[in-house]
Specification:
The chain is mostly helical. The protein has one domain. It contains six helices and no strands. The mean pLDDT is 95.
Length: 169
């Protein structure tokens, strides 16, 4: 089991470290649009949606990395003063009551949304460029799938800590 946990952690790390490279690409695309619009007076029709989709992909692919390293926002007024075992109890309860139901719902819906987008050839209607939405929706589904796996890994670790057993990996 430790090998599976470490493998999922490795995938989460790799995904997050890869997704971060979308940030400079987004900055470059925005700079390009500013130059095209204000220096050459020739705005692009594709840049806005490309930036929005790249940003969405970066966020979706970063979810698992953020969860892996517990970098998400918490209200630590009380939580940080608790023992590791008490924090694990809160995390186990929160995962069972909130995280799993919501993430499994979002994962299922995003997969269906992506499949439907591929089947219908869905395009974005935000601009007159009309780019296909299926690749973007697929990345969002992959992000939810990876987050589900990382959530299961973290739940296993928290559960083992809660019952007082050591689980390395």
């Amino acid at each position: 089991m430790k090998t599976i946990l470490r493998t999922i952690d490795s995938i989460s790390n790799a995904t997050g470290k890869t997704a971060r490279w979308l940030a400079p690409a987004i900055v470059a695309l925005i700079a390009l649009e500013v130059i095209m619009r204000y220096i050459f007076n020739a705005p692009t029709m594709w840049n806005y949606e490309t930036v929005m989709m790249a940003g969405g992909c970066m966020i979706a692919l970063s979810w698992t990395y953020v969860h892996r390293h517990q970098c998400h926002i918490r209200i630590d007024v009380i939580y940080s003063h608790l023992s590791p075992r008490a924090r694990a109890g809160i995390d186990v309860a929160g995962t069972l009551l909130l995280f799993f139901p919501l993430i499994f719902l979002f994962t299922g819906v995003s997969i269906l949304w992506a499949l439907d987008s591929w089947a219908t050839g869905e395009v974005s209607i935000d601009t007159y460029w009309y780019p296909p939405l299926a690749p973007f929706r697929t990345v969002a589904a992959i992000g939810f799938i990876l987050l589900s796996f990382q959530g299961i890994v973290q739940f296993i670790r928290d559960f083992y800590l809660l019952i007082g057993r050591k689980l390395n990996g």
